[in-house]
Amino acid sequence: MTPEGTRRTPVMLQLHRSVHTDAVNVTTSMLECFVAIVDEHGLGNAARALGVSQPTVSGTVRSLETELGVELFRREANTLVLSPEGAALLPLARRTVLDHRAAERVVDELRTTNPGGAAPTVRIALSDRSTTPELIAAFVAARPGSRIDVVTIADPAEALAQVRTGQIDCAVVPDSDAPSDLVHEHLPDDVRVLALPPGSGHVGTLDQLDAAVPLAVLAPTHRVGVGVVDALAGLGIVATVVLSGVPQQALPGLVAHGIGAAVMSESMARSVAAAGGSVVPWPAPPSERTRIVYSPNWVAPLINSSIDQLDRGQSVGTKTNHS
Fold it and tell me: Of 150, 163, 159, 104, whose CA–CA distance to 295 is shortest?
């Protein structure tokens, strides 16, 4: 979505000027440049993000300021800072850009989908900590026949940035990363377990682990692995991180093949149990709760329906929107 070489539909905004009131002709490309400067922290970064030259971005924003009759940015110590007028315009500009992109996506889907065909694609970002099986099953159950694109984004900040720009429709992020400018709500608590490889014996609880047998631990990150080791040490169990940097989705297969033990969601551990391994309840701290985050566009009803599927009729909390 760039200002150069892209067709744009003018967006008519009724704004009250200080002297008089009239209609101004503001294009989506103008607003997109304005939002990009704010999000990318400067003209140069905005130009790179939009795939255009810096003079193009600068000229487009000057045209926007001329059209509106207000100054949107002020320069302080070689840094562009939003003016009060710019801060007031930003929420509307961001929503307009997102709505325009959503409309373009719907039109593109209609052009490529026959009547009665598949529903529009929903793009969802998941990290290695996300509850992938339950979440995708919920989406499928909520809208049979829909196309779902799953994108793995390890950095929650990057996932949220792509939700804001309309590159993806929603993201599942840790509770601590949930933003104030997007709609978000808790997913049902995910039951965490310690999956043990085949040959570990019949273990039902953590205190039944054999303290005399050192435990090899697999983890998506070294930090997570150290946390598991420390928790086991509190029970007198000697454990060592033998493999880290493992995608969450790969952990069940590695545990089932006897490489080591790993903490994962209960649903992901089913394949380990089927292979002869053991599954032990694992206490997950509240900070590991997750939220689904999305922009309030056309995908919202699908998100709500999916959460209903996930929750199986129980309340998951109050929807929050601080935009």
Answer: 163
